[in-house]
Amino acid sequence: MPTAVTPPPRTTGLLSAIVIVASLGYFVDIYDLILFSIVRVQSLNDLGITAKEAVTTQGLYLINMQMGGMLVGGILWGILGDKRGRLSVLFGSILIYSLANIANGFVQTLEQYAWLRLIAGIGLAGELGAGITLVAETLPKEKRGYGTMIVATVGVSGAMLAYWVGEKFGWRNAYFVGGGLGLALLALRAGVFESGLFQQTKRTDVERGNFFALFTNGPRLVRYLKCLLIGIPLWFVVGILITLAPEFGEAMGLTGPVTAGLGVFWSYFGLVFGDFASGTLSQLLRSRNRALQLFLGFCAVMVGVYLFGIRGATPTTYYVVCFILGFAVGFWALFVTVAAEQFGTNLRATVATTAPNFSRGSVVALVPLFQALRGELGILNGAAVLGLSTLVVAFWAVSTLPESFGKDLDYVEE
Fold first, then answer.
1. Cα torsion at 57, 97, 239, 287 (round to 10°)?
2. Cβ atoms of 216 and 341 closer than 8 Å
3. Which residue ranges traverse the bilayer (predicted)?
């Protein structure tokens, strides 16, 4: 049972330094996270990998290394966030992924590329969970949905900058820019204060950041697993449908070639509006769950349109569909907010950090499943089966979670 923690914590406003830094941190996070999908073909070609099948295979290998790093980092940063504080994770993760991305601009071999993607993934794992937790714990409960909406809306637009820089300045310089942006962000640390809820809990003898505590209580474990499942459809869309845009475009018989870079650009442009809409909708409906259900339903429709509704279409039509599909999966910050709201202060950062990273890291499992289904059913039908499965499971998960809108976060898990 939850145990109350007193006295009342310090709160802040929607345009506070905390919200601004969390938003800009997520902006750089998304820039660096999605950059590889944009420069995959160009960077691998420059490293001497030019055969089409090798570009696909080695590209998936590098994605798996990055996502594997995020799985490790999600646990590491989540535990540290509850043991050491939200701020230490927020700025520590930014430092690590920034340095890794600068180093990424110097790689000469595939293995160097892979190991640096792993390290960058570990760094990238911490920022969003720490930022969302900090914003959720420092804003009044009736406004925190708007706060996390701002973080997401600003953050996902980092993908568009990544596309522009990658196209204009080349893949190596794009990594340098990403790393430089992260290091510059560390200068904004002044004015950002630690969560009052965390500080209060730290003064008690309550155990904090015990990742294994999520597995020692049946109802708590089920609640946690449901949180993880909600975010998987987004990474099916981004990690498979959009990242493999050239391969899907060829299978659809489009009238011209399409690129993953432009696919990412337009899908993340849609995500900007989707995150704004889902966050606002959850506030207007006074329900996180209903907003998520609506977006998951719309996502199912758009996955069908993407795979089977634009065969023989023009590249322009394809990118329009990418934009709408991006809007449909624009519930990322809402999903992380729900995860944070489901757990007490002593486990909140652990959950809010591991949940999105395990969902991102699901690409590690989705890729071989997709490869197997692709071999049996073809690329379009295989993707349809996998996508529908992730959406059905996510819809069930959100439909059976307790509603968290307006929930008082001043409690701990025993």
1. 170
2. no
3. 12-39, 59-80, 87-107, 113-134, 146-166, 172-193, 224-245, 292-310, 316-340, 379-398
Cα separation, 207 vs 256, whole angstroms: 58
Output the pTM of the full model: 0.83
305-355: per-residue pLDDT in tens? Answer: 999 999 999 999 999 999 999 999 999 889 989 998 999 999 999 999 998
Q: Which residue has the tokens 């199912």?
A: 300
**∠ Cα 254 258 263 (to 5°):** 120
The Cβ of residue 393 has, within 10 Å, a number of other Cβ atoms equal to 14
Q: Which tokens hold the place of 110?
A: 């595939």
Q: Estimate the share of the chain in helix, then strand, then coil, as percent rounded to the nearest 5.
A: 80, 0, 20
- For the chain, what is the total number of helices (H) and then of strands (E)? 18, 2
- Supply 178's token pair: 């990403």
Tokens 């486990």 correspond to what residue?
Answer: 347
Q: Which two tokens stand for residue 99?
A: 């340095």
Tell me phi and psi for residue 4, to 5 degrees.
Answer: -70, 150
Contact 114, 65 (CB under 8 A): yes
Crossing angle of helices 218-230 and 345-361, rounded to 10°: 40
Q: Spell out the CATH class of 13-412.
A: mainly alpha
Helices 86-104 and 345-361: angle between axes, nearest 10 degrees: 20
Which range has highest mean pLDDT (74-83, 131-140, 287-296)?
Answer: 287-296
- pLDDT at position 197 is 84
Q: What DSSP string runs through 222-240?
A: HHHHHHHHHTHHHHHIIII
